[in-house]
Recover the amino acids of this structure.
Protein backbone atom coordinates (compact mmCIF):
# COMPACT_ATOMS: atom_id res chain seq x y z
CA UNK A 1 0.00 0.00 0.00
CA UNK A 2 1.25 3.51 -0.92
CA UNK A 3 2.60 5.45 2.08
CA UNK A 4 0.03 7.95 3.37
CA UNK A 5 1.00 11.51 4.27
CA UNK A 6 -0.48 14.41 6.21
CA UNK A 7 -0.22 17.73 4.35
CA UNK A 8 0.40 20.69 6.66
CA UNK A 9 -0.04 24.11 5.07
CA UNK A 10 1.98 26.77 6.91
CA UNK A 11 3.97 23.97 8.54
CA UNK A 12 7.06 26.16 9.08
CA UNK A 13 5.18 28.84 10.97
CA UNK A 14 4.90 29.30 14.74
CA UNK A 15 1.95 26.94 15.27
CA UNK A 16 2.82 24.79 12.23
CA UNK A 17 6.36 23.89 13.32
CA UNK A 18 5.07 22.72 16.70
CA UNK A 19 2.31 20.67 15.03
CA UNK A 20 4.85 19.11 12.63
CA UNK A 21 7.11 18.10 15.54
CA UNK A 22 4.27 16.45 17.41
CA UNK A 23 3.19 14.51 14.31
CA UNK A 24 6.77 13.43 13.54
CA UNK A 25 7.08 12.18 17.12
CA UNK A 26 4.17 9.84 16.36
CA UNK A 27 5.83 8.71 13.09
CA UNK A 28 3.36 10.39 10.77
CA UNK A 29 4.69 11.01 7.24
CA UNK A 30 4.54 14.73 6.61
CA UNK A 31 4.41 17.05 3.62
CA UNK A 32 4.80 20.74 4.50
CA UNK A 33 3.61 23.45 2.12
CA UNK A 34 4.87 26.90 3.14
CA UNK A 35 5.47 30.15 1.20
CA UNK A 36 7.85 31.43 3.93
CA UNK A 37 6.05 34.79 3.99
CA UNK A 38 6.06 34.69 7.79
CA UNK A 39 8.56 31.94 8.59
CA UNK A 40 12.28 31.36 8.09
CA UNK A 41 13.68 28.44 6.06
CA UNK A 42 16.11 27.89 8.94
CA UNK A 43 13.17 26.41 10.84
CA UNK A 44 13.47 23.33 8.56
CA UNK A 45 16.89 22.51 10.04
CA UNK A 46 15.60 23.19 13.55
CA UNK A 47 12.69 20.73 13.07
CA UNK A 48 15.13 18.13 11.71
CA UNK A 49 17.50 18.69 14.64
CA UNK A 50 14.76 18.30 17.28
CA UNK A 51 12.93 15.38 15.65
CA UNK A 52 15.79 13.59 13.94
CA UNK A 53 13.14 12.65 11.38
CA UNK A 54 12.78 13.41 7.66
CA UNK A 55 9.80 15.09 6.03
CA UNK A 56 8.89 16.59 2.66
CA UNK A 57 9.01 20.37 2.31
CA UNK A 58 7.40 22.15 -0.65
CA UNK A 59 7.87 25.90 -1.00
CA UNK A 60 4.77 27.57 -2.38
CA UNK A 61 1.50 29.29 -1.76
CA UNK A 62 -1.82 27.58 -1.05
CA UNK A 63 -3.26 29.55 -3.99
CA UNK A 64 -0.83 27.96 -6.48
CA UNK A 65 -2.92 25.30 -8.19
CA UNK A 66 0.03 23.74 -10.04
CA UNK A 67 1.89 23.17 -6.77
CA UNK A 68 -1.20 21.76 -5.08
CA UNK A 69 -1.91 19.44 -8.04
CA UNK A 70 1.71 18.22 -8.01
CA UNK A 71 1.53 17.45 -4.27
CA UNK A 72 -1.75 15.53 -4.59
CA UNK A 73 -0.39 13.65 -7.63
CA UNK A 74 2.92 12.70 -6.04
CA UNK A 75 1.83 11.90 -2.47
CA UNK A 76 -1.11 9.95 -1.11
CA UNK A 77 -2.52 12.62 1.24
CA UNK A 78 -4.72 11.11 3.97
CA UNK A 79 -5.59 14.44 5.54
CA UNK A 80 -4.77 18.14 5.51
CA UNK A 81 -4.02 20.40 8.49
CA UNK A 82 -4.61 23.90 7.12
CA UNK A 83 -2.67 26.49 9.13
CA UNK A 84 -1.40 28.81 6.38
CA UNK A 85 -2.82 32.30 6.69
CA UNK A 86 -2.12 35.88 7.70
CA UNK A 87 -2.93 36.35 11.39
CA UNK A 88 -2.15 39.85 12.67
CA UNK A 89 -5.36 41.49 13.82
CA UNK A 90 -4.09 45.06 13.58
CA UNK A 91 -2.57 44.47 10.13
CA UNK A 92 -5.83 42.93 8.90
CA UNK A 93 -7.60 46.21 9.61
CA UNK A 94 -5.04 48.13 7.53
CA UNK A 95 -4.84 45.67 4.61
CA UNK A 96 -8.27 43.96 4.40
CA UNK A 97 -7.93 42.99 0.73
CA UNK A 98 -4.62 41.24 1.42
CA UNK A 99 -6.29 39.25 4.22
CA UNK A 100 -9.38 38.29 2.21
CA UNK A 101 -7.25 37.34 -0.81
CA UNK A 102 -4.70 35.33 1.13
CA UNK A 103 -6.88 33.72 3.77
CA UNK A 104 -10.24 33.27 2.05
CA UNK A 105 -9.32 33.00 -1.64
CA UNK A 106 -6.24 30.92 -0.86
CA UNK A 107 -8.27 28.52 1.28
CA UNK A 108 -10.94 28.22 -1.44
CA UNK A 109 -8.33 27.19 -4.01
CA UNK A 110 -6.87 24.68 -1.56
CA UNK A 111 -10.32 23.18 -0.94
CA UNK A 112 -11.10 23.02 -4.69
CA UNK A 113 -7.87 21.13 -5.38
CA UNK A 114 -8.52 18.85 -2.40
CA UNK A 115 -11.96 18.04 -3.83
CA UNK A 116 -10.48 17.28 -7.26
CA UNK A 117 -7.85 15.02 -5.68
CA UNK A 118 -10.49 13.32 -3.53
CA UNK A 119 -8.72 14.48 -0.34
CA UNK A 120 -11.56 15.29 2.05
CA UNK A 121 -10.24 15.07 5.60
CA UNK A 122 -9.39 18.51 6.98
CA UNK A 123 -8.35 20.12 10.28
CA UNK A 124 -8.74 23.89 9.99
CA UNK A 125 -7.03 26.51 12.15
CA UNK A 126 -9.69 28.99 13.17
CA UNK A 127 -9.69 31.50 15.99
CA UNK A 128 -11.58 32.75 19.02
CA UNK A 129 -11.68 36.01 17.07
CA UNK A 130 -14.83 34.71 15.38
CA UNK A 131 -16.79 35.25 18.61
CA UNK A 132 -18.46 38.53 19.41
CA UNK A 133 -18.81 40.15 22.81
CA UNK A 134 -20.49 38.20 25.58
CA UNK A 135 -21.58 39.17 29.11
CA UNK A 136 -19.65 36.53 31.04
CA UNK A 137 -16.86 36.25 28.43
CA UNK A 138 -16.81 32.42 28.65
CA UNK A 139 -17.31 31.18 25.09
CA UNK A 140 -18.77 27.83 24.07
CA UNK A 141 -18.84 26.61 20.47
CA UNK A 142 -22.59 27.30 20.31
CA UNK A 143 -22.19 30.99 21.12
CA UNK A 144 -23.06 33.54 18.49
CA UNK A 145 -20.27 34.63 16.22
CA UNK A 146 -19.63 38.30 15.48
CA UNK A 147 -15.98 38.89 14.59
CA UNK A 148 -14.75 42.33 15.64
CA UNK A 149 -11.98 42.54 13.01
CA UNK A 150 -11.08 41.57 9.44
CA UNK A 151 -8.86 38.71 10.58
CA UNK A 152 -11.70 37.15 12.56
CA UNK A 153 -14.08 37.69 9.65
CA UNK A 154 -11.76 35.81 7.25
CA UNK A 155 -11.71 32.87 9.69
CA UNK A 156 -15.50 32.84 10.00
CA UNK A 157 -15.99 32.99 6.21
CA UNK A 158 -13.70 29.98 5.80
CA UNK A 159 -15.61 28.10 8.51
CA UNK A 160 -18.84 28.76 6.60
CA UNK A 161 -17.29 27.72 3.28
CA UNK A 162 -16.31 24.41 4.87
CA UNK A 163 -19.81 23.87 6.26
CA UNK A 164 -21.32 24.51 2.80
CA UNK A 165 -18.80 22.24 1.06
CA UNK A 166 -19.56 19.43 3.49
CA UNK A 167 -23.31 19.94 3.05
CA UNK A 168 -23.00 19.44 -0.72
CA UNK A 169 -20.24 16.85 -0.62
CA UNK A 170 -21.05 14.56 2.30
CA UNK A 171 -17.77 12.64 2.21
CA UNK A 172 -15.87 15.65 3.54
CA UNK A 173 -14.91 15.37 7.23
CA UNK A 174 -13.86 18.63 8.88
CA UNK A 175 -12.59 19.54 12.34
CA UNK A 176 -12.43 23.28 13.06
CA UNK A 177 -10.19 24.34 15.97
CA UNK A 178 -10.88 27.79 17.41
CA UNK A 179 -7.58 28.83 18.99
CA UNK A 180 -7.61 31.21 21.93
CA UNK A 181 -4.24 32.83 22.69
CA UNK A 182 -1.31 30.59 21.76
CA UNK A 183 1.99 31.53 23.48
CA UNK A 184 5.22 29.85 24.62
CA UNK A 185 7.70 27.72 22.69
CA UNK A 186 9.15 24.23 22.35
CA UNK A 187 11.18 23.40 25.49
CA UNK A 188 14.37 23.04 23.43
CA UNK A 189 14.29 26.79 22.73
CA UNK A 190 15.02 25.96 19.08
CA UNK A 191 11.62 26.97 17.73
CA UNK A 192 9.18 29.60 18.89
CA UNK A 193 7.21 32.69 17.93
CA UNK A 194 9.41 34.35 15.31
CA UNK A 195 7.62 37.48 14.04
CA UNK A 196 9.29 39.01 10.98
CA UNK A 197 8.51 42.49 12.18
CA UNK A 198 7.64 44.08 15.53
CA UNK A 199 5.35 41.63 17.36
CA UNK A 200 1.87 42.92 18.23
CA UNK A 201 1.11 40.07 20.65
CA UNK A 202 1.69 40.46 24.37
CA UNK A 203 4.24 37.79 25.35
CA UNK A 204 6.66 38.31 22.44
CA UNK A 205 6.53 42.03 23.29
CA UNK A 206 7.36 41.23 26.94
CA UNK A 207 10.28 38.97 25.99
CA UNK A 208 11.65 41.67 23.66
CA UNK A 209 11.66 44.10 26.60
CA UNK A 210 13.37 41.45 28.75
CA UNK A 211 16.06 40.84 26.12
CA UNK A 212 16.61 44.60 25.77
CA UNK A 213 15.22 45.00 22.23
CA UNK A 214 12.53 47.32 23.59
CA UNK A 215 12.78 49.85 26.40
CA UNK A 216 9.37 49.28 27.88
CA UNK A 217 6.09 47.51 27.33
CA UNK A 218 3.04 49.56 26.44
CA UNK A 219 -0.05 48.29 28.23
CA UNK A 220 -3.11 49.08 26.16
CA UNK A 221 -5.49 50.46 28.76
CA UNK A 222 -6.13 49.76 32.45
CA UNK A 223 -9.70 51.01 32.67
CA UNK A 224 -11.47 47.81 31.68
CA UNK A 225 -13.99 46.24 34.08
CA UNK A 226 -11.52 43.53 35.18
CA UNK A 227 -9.87 42.95 38.56
CA UNK A 228 -6.85 45.15 37.74
CA UNK A 229 -8.32 47.08 34.80
CA UNK A 230 -6.27 45.33 32.11
CA UNK A 231 -7.62 42.87 29.54
CA UNK A 232 -7.85 39.17 30.36
CA UNK A 233 -7.11 36.43 27.85
CA UNK A 234 -7.13 32.62 27.76
CA UNK A 235 -3.47 31.82 27.08
CA UNK A 236 -2.60 28.33 25.92
CA UNK A 237 0.85 26.76 25.54
CA UNK A 238 1.64 26.23 21.86
CA UNK A 239 2.63 22.64 22.70
CA UNK A 240 -0.84 21.98 24.13
CA UNK A 241 -2.31 23.60 21.04
CA UNK A 242 -0.15 21.42 18.77
CA UNK A 243 -1.32 18.28 20.58
CA UNK A 244 -4.94 19.31 19.99
CA UNK A 245 -4.26 18.77 16.26
CA UNK A 246 -3.20 15.18 16.92
CA UNK A 247 -6.41 14.56 18.83
CA UNK A 248 -8.38 16.22 16.02
CA UNK A 249 -6.75 14.00 13.36
CA UNK A 250 -7.40 10.92 15.46
CA UNK A 251 -11.05 11.90 15.87
CA UNK A 252 -11.35 12.61 12.15
CA UNK A 253 -9.90 9.29 11.08
CA UNK A 254 -11.78 7.20 13.65
CA UNK A 255 -15.25 8.70 13.24
CA UNK A 256 -17.60 9.43 10.40
CA UNK A 257 -18.03 13.16 11.04
CA UNK A 258 -19.35 16.10 9.04
CA UNK A 259 -18.10 19.38 10.57
CA UNK A 260 -17.06 19.55 14.25
CA UNK A 261 -15.98 22.75 15.96
CA UNK A 262 -13.85 22.88 19.15
CA UNK A 263 -12.58 25.68 21.38
CA UNK A 264 -8.88 25.18 22.05
CA UNK A 265 -8.16 27.13 25.20
CA UNK A 266 -7.10 26.44 28.79
CA UNK A 267 -10.31 27.66 30.40
CA UNK A 268 -8.29 30.07 32.60
CA UNK A 269 -7.81 33.80 31.90
CA UNK A 270 -5.00 36.09 33.01
CA UNK A 271 -4.77 39.88 32.82
CA UNK A 272 -1.91 41.74 31.15
CA UNK A 273 -0.50 42.75 34.55
CA UNK A 274 -0.70 39.15 35.79
CA UNK A 275 1.24 37.95 32.74
CA UNK A 276 3.90 40.60 33.38
CA UNK A 277 4.15 39.56 37.07
CA UNK A 278 4.45 35.84 36.29
CA UNK A 279 7.05 36.54 33.62
CA UNK A 280 9.10 38.67 36.07
CA UNK A 281 8.96 35.84 38.65
CA UNK A 282 10.05 33.26 36.10
CA UNK A 283 12.80 35.33 34.46
CA UNK A 284 13.95 37.40 37.44
CA UNK A 285 13.84 40.40 35.11
CA UNK A 286 11.89 43.60 35.79
CA UNK A 287 9.59 44.56 32.90
CA UNK A 288 9.08 48.34 32.81
CA UNK A 289 5.70 49.27 31.36
CA UNK A 290 3.60 52.30 30.60
CA UNK A 291 -0.18 52.36 30.53
CA UNK A 292 -1.38 53.96 27.30
CA UNK A 293 -4.73 54.16 25.49
CA UNK A 294 -6.82 51.12 24.70
CA UNK A 295 -6.07 49.30 21.43
CA UNK A 296 -9.00 49.47 18.99
CA UNK A 297 -10.76 46.11 18.62
CA UNK A 298 -9.66 44.75 22.02
CA UNK A 299 -12.36 43.20 24.20
CA UNK A 300 -11.96 43.22 27.99
CA UNK A 301 -12.05 39.44 28.52
CA UNK A 302 -12.04 36.32 26.39
CA UNK A 303 -12.12 32.85 27.91
CA UNK A 304 -12.75 29.40 26.47
CA UNK A 305 -15.11 26.77 27.78
CA UNK A 306 -12.94 23.87 26.54
CA UNK A 307 -15.20 21.10 27.85
CA UNK A 308 -16.36 19.93 24.41
CA UNK A 309 -12.77 19.25 23.26
CA UNK A 310 -12.13 17.39 26.52
CA UNK A 311 -15.31 15.32 26.24
CA UNK A 312 -15.19 14.48 22.53
CA UNK A 313 -11.52 14.73 21.53
CA UNK A 314 -10.15 13.68 24.90
CA UNK A 315 -7.86 16.75 24.77
CA UNK A 316 -7.15 19.11 27.70
CA UNK A 317 -4.52 21.83 28.14
CA UNK A 318 -1.88 20.70 30.64
CA UNK A 319 0.82 23.41 30.75
CA UNK A 320 0.38 26.47 32.97
CA UNK A 321 1.24 30.15 32.48
CA UNK A 322 4.58 29.81 34.31
CA UNK A 323 5.66 27.12 31.82
CA UNK A 324 4.47 29.28 28.92
CA UNK A 325 6.60 32.18 30.21
CA UNK A 326 9.62 29.92 30.95
CA UNK A 327 9.58 28.41 27.47
CA UNK A 328 8.97 31.73 25.70
CA UNK A 329 11.86 33.29 27.63
CA UNK A 330 14.25 30.39 26.83
CA UNK A 331 13.36 30.75 23.11
CA UNK A 332 13.92 34.52 23.19
CA UNK A 333 17.20 34.22 25.12
CA UNK A 334 18.56 31.63 22.68
CA UNK A 335 17.31 33.58 19.65
CA UNK A 336 17.59 37.29 20.56
CA UNK A 337 17.04 38.25 16.92
CA UNK A 338 14.67 35.40 16.06
CA UNK A 339 15.72 32.91 13.42
C1 LIG B 1 -3.40 40.21 24.47
C2 LIG B 1 -3.68 41.33 25.45
C3 LIG B 1 -3.75 43.52 24.46
C4 LIG B 1 0.45 43.71 23.34
C5 LIG B 1 -4.66 38.02 19.03
C6 LIG B 1 -5.61 37.65 17.94
C7 LIG B 1 -6.00 36.22 18.09
C8 LIG B 1 -4.77 35.35 18.14
C9 LIG B 1 -3.90 35.79 19.31
C10 LIG B 1 -4.23 34.42 16.01
C11 LIG B 1 -4.64 42.36 24.87
C12 LIG B 1 -2.60 43.41 25.44
C13 LIG B 1 -0.77 43.27 23.82
C14 LIG B 1 1.11 44.81 23.96
C15 LIG B 1 -0.70 44.97 25.53
N1 LIG B 1 -4.04 35.40 16.94
N2 LIG B 1 -1.33 43.88 24.90
N3 LIG B 1 0.50 45.40 25.03
O1 LIG B 1 -5.33 40.46 20.63
O2 LIG B 1 -5.99 38.82 22.48
O3 LIG B 1 -5.38 37.97 20.23
O4 LIG B 1 -3.56 37.14 19.07
O5 LIG B 1 -4.92 33.45 16.10
O6 LIG B 1 -6.77 35.88 16.98
O7 LIG B 1 -6.76 38.44 18.08
O8 LIG B 1 -3.62 38.89 21.68
O9 LIG B 1 -1.35 39.14 22.55
O10 LIG B 1 -2.22 40.86 20.90
O11 LIG B 1 -3.09 40.83 23.22
O12 LIG B 1 -1.24 45.52 26.49
O13 LIG B 1 2.23 45.26 23.55
O14 LIG B 1 -2.46 42.03 25.72
O15 LIG B 1 -4.40 44.77 24.61
O16 LIG B 1 -5.47 42.80 25.91
P1 LIG B 1 -5.16 39.14 21.30
P2 LIG B 1 -2.49 39.95 22.03
Amino acid sequence: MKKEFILITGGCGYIGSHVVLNLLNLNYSIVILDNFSNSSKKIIERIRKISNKSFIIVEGDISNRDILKSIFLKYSIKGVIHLAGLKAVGESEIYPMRYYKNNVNGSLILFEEMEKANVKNLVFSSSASVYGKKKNFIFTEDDSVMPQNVYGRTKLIIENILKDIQKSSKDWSVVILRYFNPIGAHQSGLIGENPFNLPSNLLPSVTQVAIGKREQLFVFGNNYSTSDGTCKRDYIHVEDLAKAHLYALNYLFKNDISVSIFNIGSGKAYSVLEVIRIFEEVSGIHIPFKIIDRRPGDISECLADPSKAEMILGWKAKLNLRKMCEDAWRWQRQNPNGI
Notes: DSSP finds eleven helices and 15 strands in the chain. The pocket of WQD is lined by residues 87, 89, 127, 129, 179, 181, 200-202, 205, 217-220, 231, 233, 272, 295, 298 (CB under 6 Å).
